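Hey team,

Filing this mostly as a record. A colleague (T.K.) asked me to run one chain through the structure pipeline before their review meeting, and I want the input and output archived in the tracker in case anyone asks later how it was produced. No errors, nothing strange. Just documentation.

Input sequence:
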Amino acid sequence: MRKKVIGILGFRGLVGCGALEMLKSTGKYQLQLGSRSIQTDQKQIEESEHISSQKVDLFDRQQLEIFCKPCDLVINCAGPSSKILSRVAQVCIDNNKLYVDPSGDKMMVKSISDYFKSKPAPPDCVLSAGVYPGLTEIFVNYLAEECYDEMFTVKEYFAGGGSFSKNGAYDIISSLANDEGAGLAFCKNGQIEKMTAGFGGSSLLPAPFGQVQHIPLVSDEFLLVARKQELKEAYFYNTFPNGDMLTQFIMIKASGQYKTEEQKIASAGKLIDIYKKGNNQENCFMLHTISSGQKGGKETECHTTLTCDTNWNELSGTIAGIVADELLEKGEHRGVCCYAQEMISAKSVITYLVDEKKAGLHQQER
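Output structure:
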C-alpha cells in the first residue's frame, strides 16, 4: 500500500524541524522536504528511507509545482508569511493538495482565503496551525469541552522563553504595520470591548515565569473561539518578563519605523535584541488560564497550566504535524479554508502533547 506523501517546506528552521520530528515518529508517511538552500542535514535525511529533500525557491512557481506534485498534503513552515502570502497555497489549491500553515499572519490569511474562494472545488486549507495562534485557541476549546458543562469566562496568559527567528520577528513587525488584532481589548458576549484604562498590567504566573507584565489582545482566532464557546468574557494576555521589554515593544509600534522594507528589517532586528536581553528563560513556554463555569450542577473556577520545555517555534511545527496527520487519517475533506481550532479535536492535541511528554498539564479547582 502506497504511503501518503507529506511535503514540508522550510524543514531546516525550528518550525519545520518540529513538524518533521512529529511526522517521522508516526512512521506512516513518505516525507518530502524542501528548503531554499541546497545544503541539507544528511543525518536528518538518512535516518529513514522514506525521507527525501530538494531545493525549492518559494518565489519560483515552477519549482513549487515540481515539489507539490507528488504530495498529498503540504505544510509550509517557511517564512516570512507576510511576504510569501498565498504563493504556496495557490499551487496546492490548483493541484488539489491539502495545505497546512502554522502561521496566522492576517495578510497571508486574507490572500489565501481570497484565492480559495475563487476556485470551484478547492482542497482543505488549514491556517493558524501553530502555537500562537493555534494552540492558544485549541486550549480554550479543550477547557470548555473537557472541564465544564458550560464555561462562562476565561483569562489566558501566554508566556514564552527562547528566541525569535528573523522571519518570526519580521512577521511581528509586519503585523504592527498592518494593525493586526485589537490591542488593549477583550471579548464580551462575542464582541470586542476596549479597555477603559491603562495599557497593561502585571500578573503572577506559576514557575518558572513568576511576575510578568502583560498586555491584552484580541486576534480573529481568539474572538472566534470566544464566540463558539459563548463566553461571557474572554481575555488573552501576551506577557513580558519585565516592564522595560513591554515599553520597548510599544515604542516600536508608536515610532512607526516599519514603513519601508529597510525599516521593517531594522525593527525586526531590534525586537530580537530586546527579547534576548530581557528574557532569561530558555526554550520554554506556558499557557496559564483562569476559567469559570458550571460543572455537575455547581459553579466552579479552575486554574489550568500547560507547560512545555521546548521553544514555541518548534512546538508550532509539532501542532502543524498533528493537524496534517489528523487530516490525512480522517480522509473526509470538506473543501474549507479554516483555522486549525475549527478543524482539529482539541482533546487529541492536548492528549498527544501530554502523552508524548511534549507538555505538562496541571489543573486546580478553587
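Quick notes for T.K.: Residues 324 and 330 are 10 Å apart (CA to CA). The longest helix spans residues 312-330.
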